[in-house]
Amino acid sequence: MSARASVGGAAYELGEYEAGYREAPRFAEKIARYEMLDEAGVWGWGRFFVSGRDRAELAVAAARRTLAMTGCTGGDVDAVVLGAAEFPADVDSHARYCRTVLEALKLGNAFVLGVTLGRCTTLLSAVHLAERLVASGTYDNVLVVVADRVEDEEKRFQQFAIFSDSAASCLVTSRPGDLAIVATASALDPAALDAAGRFSGQLGRAAAEAITRRSGVRPEEIAAVLPPNLFTPIVRMSEGQAGFRPGQLFLANIANRGHCFSADPIVNLVDRQRADGLRPGDHLLLTSGVPGARVSILVQVR
User: Which of 156, 173, 190 is the last residue in one of the domains?
Assistant: First the structure.
């Protein structure tokens, strides 16, 4: 299947302070409340990253790497999609955030879009939107940037993940890039859209089946699945129900990076490449889900 757009310059930025999982606020109290055994190897507990910078600084740091890697200047970018699991509440803060990012990256000609509401699917939703904008011929180079940080340290350690302050970015372009976008898919159960809900293997399987219909690539033919960095049992269960084998899952960053909000698929893509390399022709699945929703993007290494 021919590519509709390409992805290049995948990059990320983590908080500058590294901490061990036992340093998460009220760690012992929380695992007792959640009835979790104190066994790091079972859950994938490891490091997390905290930043003293605001989200705009994190976003700019990641995006600058993307522009440098792709050889683009701010003037080459004709649209930018800014994403966050949670934007500041007031519109004045929205304006300041946009102005800071756009001015720092010299994006004077870019059409600006914001993507949120998807929680941990936000980044892939933004890439999906950018791919459609490029495939339609509306824009040639769309910069996607997401950034999030924990504002209340009481929420750093949760029942499903330990969060890291982070940002990630990539360029979705009509030009040949590192990765050809082969197919995108999403699955939704509005009744299950609840922060306290359960992850659904059915949604994962529905998205995987849609990827196969649109690309002809079967789940077993995918070289690596790059999922969110939730606790290991959750990822193994949800991805297994979606039809993927344990050996396909990139899980190292659950302990190495923590849960980087919606940035996980790009963080994992970059680190998977560093660890094992990417072979031309390989198919990779970037995927993320929350209770009630799943987004997946299939790419092929050029």
Answer: 173
